[in-house]
Amino acid sequence: MIPFLDLRRQYGDIKDELEGAVLATLRSGQYVLGEQVERFERSFADYCGARHVIAVSSGTAALQLALLAAGIKLGDEVITVPTTFVATVAAIAYCGATPVLVDVDPRTLTMDPEKLEKAITPRTRAVVPVHFHGRLADMAAIGAIAEKHGLCVIEDACQAHGAERDGVRAGAFGAMGCFSFYPGKNLGAAGEGGAITTSDDALAERLRMLRDWGQRERSVHELRGYNLRMDAVQGAVLDVKLRYLDGWNAARRRVAQAYDEGLAGAVERPSPAGPADHVRHVYALCHPQRDALRQALSDAGIATNIHYLRPVHLQPAYADLAAGPGSFPVAERYARTTLSLPIYPELTGPEIGRVIDAVNACAERLETTNPPMEMAS
User: Transferase among the record's keywords (predicted)?
Assistant: First the structure.
């Protein structure tokens, strides 16, 4: 079986460096924030082209604290998309604000700027574009609309570590950028972790206070803050792994290029992206008989995944958004048909070939035995 993801391979490649960094952290006796986390914050800020990085306990924490630092509160509206992990919308709700969803562009699966502008009301305070699967959203158009209406832009860059357009990296387009370091991400920790990027000094200071019980100095709680700090072991691991991120992203692009060139017309492949603005966190094709194709691939020894089975507005926990089936046709069609293939830097050439051959054979067999219905957009 070719696994969908095998983190043991990555660990094996940099085992000595990781274990040395973790052991040094354990010996230091400093296990929350501290020098290991500060070193990673400085390195990641330089990498992203931001003045500040505030390391936190998860990507969800990053989103929540960014919204709070921007002053989002009860009664405000924040616009985002239904094609995302639920954390994007959950973070808005945690602040007491109302999530307002707009459909995605059918080509990129990122926020449709035209639909964004139509959704703005007097209560709108912020917009959270999602760099879905590692592809940058249309930040030029989104930023122009946000500036026109006086809205704060907070990037959900949780899948886009290192994505770049016109010399600007993910996390440096908006007022703040939010990253997740969940182990399976392009830059993954050895557990949970997240970070916020910003070049605004005041926002950075507020974020540091919010993650640590609202205190600037010990035992003086100026804000009603949270316990959302990064632990030192994760900082040490991430500081090691960051040195390899560009190489890993390049390897992911090579896998994606092989899929692009090798997969036949029986499946719908992701639309083309620029050379640097997609870091291929996920390679998701579409097929009208997705579940049958997934089973056939499993039978052929190819593990797959689905990102994501339902758009947020069709999740039971978010039924109160009052957006039922048919509200966002592009997002819904994508969720019905999407299937993610294995993509990670350590995939070998023969494994990539096996995946391509299996997808083509299984899709062709399904098309022959049970012709697909037209995939409506």
Answer: yes
